[in-house]
Amino acid sequence: MRRSVAITLIVFSAVVVAGGVIADNSARAYAENLIATGVKTSLPSEVAGEVDVSVGGLSFISQYLSGKLDEVTITSRDLQLSGVPVAASILAKGVPTDLGRPVDAIDATLTLSEAAVNATAVPGAGSLALLDGSVGYAGTLNVLGVSLNYTVRAAAAPSPGNVILLTPQEVTLSSGGGSLDLTGVLAGVKDTTVPLCLASYLPKSLTISGVTVTAGAADIVVSGRNILLSPAILSTRGTCS
After folding, report:
1. Mean pLDDT across the stretch 54-76?
2. 0.85 exceeded by the pTM?
């Protein structure tokens, strides 16, 4: 008798736990769909594309009742940002269920192809080549009536104002010059940094915190802390001087 009662209690507990898991998973899936719809609705007019949402953490219901979700991951491979194609992965931590309150932290990785990078304005650099660990570009100088063509390999790093600064590491003369001593000229090119301003493409409340360049692509990490996810804030862009 005791054994049958114990078995009954075990089975009942298993059913309750399974029911709780199913309910929690259903609530999580519903919330993910709701958040995805909300994100699409809140996108600024110059941003278009589909998004997928995943809510992390343990019990979703417990998180919801606490008023804050541990982690929300938003991904998209077909975003268009002012006509520029971008793949995006966004990790938001401490997301309040009341969106009138700020999100604790946002870290987004935007992946741009070489063509997408070149769709932005690059003053003084012309067309950029995304190499393994560096950025390449070409230029022309006129010295004593002689045209000099050169190529540059530059390191890319974030700079204040949502600017990616290209700092030449290696300058090579590709044609021209003849017997001229061009040591000083090439040194001048190497000392000249090139700013790539992305401020007009990004919400003003977010800051470029990292850049990784690989062959044919660039990953740009954008971060922010204590940010309200309102359409007005997300649509407010910076400016490039």
Report:
1. 90
2. no
